[in-house]
Amino acid sequence: xxxxxxxxxxxxxxxxxxxxxxxxxxxxxxxxxxxxxxxxxxxxxxxxxxxxxxxxxxxxxxxxxxxxxxxxxxxxxxxxxxxxxxxxxxxxxxxxxxxxxxxxxxxxxxxxxxxxxxxxxxxxxxxxxxxxxxxxxxxxxxxxxxxxxxxxxxxxxxxxxxxxxxxxxxxxxxxxxxxxxxxxxxxxxxxxxxxxxxxxxxxxxxxxxxxxxxxxxxxxxxxxxxxxxxxxxxxxxxxxxxxxxxxxxxxxxxxxxxxxxxxxxxxxxxxxxxxxxxxx
Length: 280
Fold this sequence. Notes:
Elements: H1 2-21, E1 36-42, E2 47-54, H2 66-73, E3 79-84, E4 87-98, E5 103-112, E6 120-126, E7 132-138, E8 145-152, E9 159-166, E10 174-181, E11 190-195, E12 203-207, E13 217-225, H3 227-242, E14 263-268, E15 271-277
Parallel strand pairs: 1-14
Antiparallel strand pairs: 1-2, 2-5, 3-4, 3-6, 4-5, 6-7, 8-9, 9-12, 10-11, 10-13, 13-15
């Protein structure tokens, strides 16, 4: 009996010690300063547009009104201009919506971006606080899609899609491949930025799983992008992956804009798009 009694005393002491080891830990998280965010995509045949906003703190109160939410994020009162071939294009503040991309912008103009793959475009923003933000970019020549092949696996009625294109192996290239199912308004099934250093030969193929039924419509889009936009996309995806994970390293955005502590991207968009039906 003595041994049993001592055993329960020891067990009680262990439990008591374990309870005392449970302590609340207070983490002092660093405060993040709000910075200006620039998004400007130059697409030939489309008007010049730009989104200028500010970051918000992760723990800041979330506005209940959509109008208040947008108003808190948008950066007002800035002077925005793009210089091309000696011409200065002033972007006015307002509401600009691109139905093709579904994106909203708060600076723009009716002037159309030219189809020019050899000359630079220069961006200059002077914020209401007097900060100057600059960047330079160029629109790259589109790379054609050679073919899209639909293959059934022979077991059931589902098919995979294979998109082929030819890479210029004499220079470094960067691409972004998108695949939408049945509607360009849908979330893409494929959203993949790639560096051609990962490609073994000139023929490149993007493939899917056996996921598509007979009668589906597939929209493949191949963007030829510059290195700055490639790094921006990767850093953006990494930042999304680390968001909400208290143990993840915060993801920084790789930008090609300079000045005023701003982050963001100023880049050209050139792409080729195909529409393919899965045969019945």
